[in-house]
Amino acid sequence: MSKRAVLEVIALDPEDAVAAQAGGADRLELVTDMAADGLTPSVATFAGIRAAVDLDLRVMLRLADGFAAGDVARLVGLAGELRAAGAEEFVLGFLSADGGVDLTAVERVLSALDGCSWTFHRAIDRAADRDALRKALDGMPGLDTYLTAGAAGGVDAGLPTLLAEARRQGEPGYEQHILVGGGLRLDHVPRLLDAGISGFHIGGAARPGGWQGPVSVEAVAEWRSVLDAGADG
């Protein structure tokens, strides 16, 4: 029996969420302000989406463009508010000025998450040393996924790294799921599936009209169909 690949879609509002679910998404990443590559949505937005769909929701914890943590106390407060509203899964990732993981910031935010599942996002693609970052985060409570393109420039540039990291799955620091996103196209899917990667993250690819337009049921359904066909192949 084949394993169903996970399709995660970025949602900005309840309408996006409903369309993504109708198209066959498994999970949503909730953000606001894609001009800044996705920041923390309001509690009201989370609540509206939670009421609209029954998918798993991963909520971004990020205050500004870039990968510095910024106001960590505010992040902790927002995490607590979202937890109180029912959020159970999150997305975060902070780097220090030298390109290493900002463990202090990560640990402070995790203290508000009560062991919730979370994704370390594409900050890994800007890290000075990906392997060192993974090793530093090994054993962090709730960390189950890395969202990565393999390189800052996107999947075209990062494909060799993604394939190499897939071969290391199960090693210390490499036990988390790989969720591929960032310049991901349908033609990348066969090689990634063949490598054993089973997580795929799309944002703009779900919006034929661009970020000013809504998620398209048809676009998400096309990804669902390709992923399912590849997993069965």
TrEMBL record:
InterPro entries for the chain: CutC-like, CutC-like_dom_sf
For this chain, the family text in UniProt reads: Belongs to the CutC family.
Q: What is this protein called?
A: Copper homeostasis protein cutC homolog
